[in-house]
Amino acid sequence: MVRIITDSTSSIPQDIRAELGIEAASLIINRDGEELVESETDLDAFYKDIYEMADNIPTSSQPPLGKVREVVESIAKTGDEVLGIFISSKLSGTFESFVHTAKEVKNDLPNFRFAAIDSMTTCMEMGWPAIAAAKAAKTGASLDGCIQAANTSLHSTRFVFAPESLLFLQKGGRIGKAAALIGNMISLTPVLTVNDGEASTFSKCRTQKKALAKMLQVLGEDTAPSGLKNLVVHYIGSKAPAMQWAEEKVAPLIGFMPRVVPASPVIGVHVGPAMGIAYECNAPIPNKFHNSEPEIIVC
Predict the structure, then answer these.
(1) Per-residue pLDDT tens for 9-59?
(2) Which residues form a coiled coil (predicted)?
(3) What is the layout of strands, in order, in the sheet containing 228-236?
(4) Any idea which architecture 2-27+62-154 has in CATH?
């Protein structure tokens, strides 16, 4: 049997992970000298005072290698195979660390087989491929079959989000001070996405309201050819505005009330208060990856 491992930035709700047997290696949030295990943290409580973090943005670190090895080794000893799907290697070293750890386990247990995918993204844009692979594994798919399921999903997903302001992006050095000042003066709100493994600007709008409308327009364009398979509304900060947007704007458009899920704080603290959508289409999105394809390692 194939077991699926991802990391906590995938933001997959715990009940779904439990149902599908998905393991999630947790990244660590470092705030004011305190280490918080992301998957064990009450994210709504964490985000409650997010505005106070702008001048001292928390940092993050990879899952402890010892814990990752424990999980991989315990699976390997049962004779099962492992497929790991992780946050973009341009955002974290988690992918490389997993590959290194899994190879060490394979040195001790030569019959162990594993594969790893650099998702080139994060949050539920990475979560949907992990779920697709886990569902394939449940039906008895081989390691290659699970890889194919995850890779097809990766090419069919998108994550777009709109920050409330440019403050956190400026404080974190993602944009210049002058650009942030001008952007805030004219109420400029970018629609952000993850492109080829890094955060990038998808579109620029004059207000967050227009940015939210733009995201739904993009959703419509992406799903027009094949239809919508899955969608969550992501939020950073307060859940209430995201719930309202989901109920009033998103649900009428897609025909059902989507799940509203907090985005990973590892990502969220660098963006600041924001809302977005992470969705999966029934078929690949044309030109999803521009300059490179997700790296897949099979051993």
Answers:
(1) 999 999 999 999 999 999 999 998 899 999 999 999 999 999 999 888 999
(2) none
(3) 198-205, 189-195, 157-163, 274-281, 228-236, 259-262
(4) 3-Layer(aba) Sandwich (3.40)
